[in-house]
Amino acid sequence: MKVLFAASEAYPFAMSGGLADVAGALPKALRKRFVGCRVVLPLYAGVSQEMREKMTFVCNITVPVAWRRQYCGVFEAHIDGVIYYLIDNQYYFNRDGLYGYFDDAERFAFFSRAVLEILPHINFKPDIIHCNDWQTALIPVYLDAFYKYADFYKDIKTVFTIHNIQYQGKYGYELTEDVLGLPQENASLLDYDNCINFMKGGIQCAHKVTTVSPTYSREILDPYYSHGLDGILKEFTYKLTGIVNGIDCDVYNPETDPLIYKNFSAEDVSNKAYNKQKLQEELGLPQNKDVPVIGIVTRLVKHKGIDLVKCVFEELLNADLQFAILGSGEWEFETFFHEMASLHPDKVGLKLGFKPDLAHKIYAGADIFLMPSQSEPCGLAQMVALRYGTIPIVRQTGGLNDTISDSGDGKGNGFTFSTYNAHDMQHTIWRALEGYSDKEGWAILRDRAMRCDNSWSASANQYIGLYKEIIGK
């Protein structure tokens, strides 16, 4: 079985969020299970010189973009047993960052068309093209409109994965002819709620639609979570399934992680205390092994539940605890936490921005990890925290609900609350602090957390089952 994994970003070439982690780890896990999985992504300006040196030129072609044709260079790289194809076009991709440009619709229309156009030239005919988020949602649409009756393409099936339904690729109708180049009889595939919607087209045309957790696949049928797409999703519910993401256990491994202060394991957790001490030191907090440290590594936005944290933060600071906070986001929250860190330097350690090395240090050095998201398609941070013996507090939504269970029954791996309410979150934090005070019980909980298997193994097997179902094997 052969799979082409199409994504707008993939580790280790281009990264802005969880999609890059998935595109870097899932193909690797599939190949270990004898699935011929390759990855295709744009060649952005930000791809490092180190990675460029691993690339070789394959060919160049021209790709139709509506009424014109654009240059497309194809480069190939072999990383950890996976073949990557990088699509080069200086006009579209030689820019700072990955997204946020006025012509993103055209950029990713070109990329989607290029994915299909390069296949005969790279001598790779996949059974499945696995598309991800709105940036590749046009691949199933273009396959239906232009390619499916050609001999080379006629048996190719598509899977479309929704990583975050909030970002759909919504544009005005004027793009239909001048940018997308869709025939009139296919234009309705993107028509939804008085605009063009790339994601809607992907949902309608793909053979299967997946989300990155089972709970999220159910939630997005509800208008509260769907950002307007519940109507089309309900129409195609028979296509929909949820498969929880895994984490790359080679990257997130406390035994070998070069970014943390000292390595440790579930068998010998003693160095976790050293990581805590050094984290406190780095953030300017008093070094006290008995004071619980609550870690927060996130975007500082309401979507991540930061409004709940702000609502009760000063009450929380009355307790004997410390916060280790890393993130950036909305001005309101950055300003608030900066003020709190200034007023309470003995309790709030704050670094604004995103620093991967410090993120790893917080996972390793904190005792508790707070993730009270309003919605969370999957979430990786709670699974990483488990791996480092840092106990998550989460709201029961999306992938948080599928990976974290409350330890109140003596079997869970964290602490959970269900209602999106600041005081319910606060009560759960009090429960966690009470659990922390029982050193023997906390050690048992920490050991149970560290032994959770959130690798890609189970998820990869589920994807293989889905692929086989589509192609009838």
What does it look like?
The N and C termini lie close together (9 Å). Helix 4 packs across helix 6, helix 6 crosses helix 9 and helix 14 packs parallel to helix 15. The chain folds into 2 domains: 260 residues, Glycogen Phosphorylase B (Rossmann fold, 3-Layer(aba) Sandwich); 180 residues, Rossmann fold. It has 473 residues and is of the alpha/beta class. The model has no long low-confidence stretch (mean pLDDT 96). Helix content is 40%, strand content 21%. The chain contains 21 helices and 18 strands. The protein has a 9-stranded mixed β-sheet with strand order 3-4-5-2-1-6-7-11-12, with helices on both faces. A 6-stranded parallel β-sheet has the order 15-14-13-16-17-18, sandwiched between helices. A 3-stranded antiparallel β-sheet has the order 8-10-9. Helix 14 links the parallel strand 13 and strand 14.
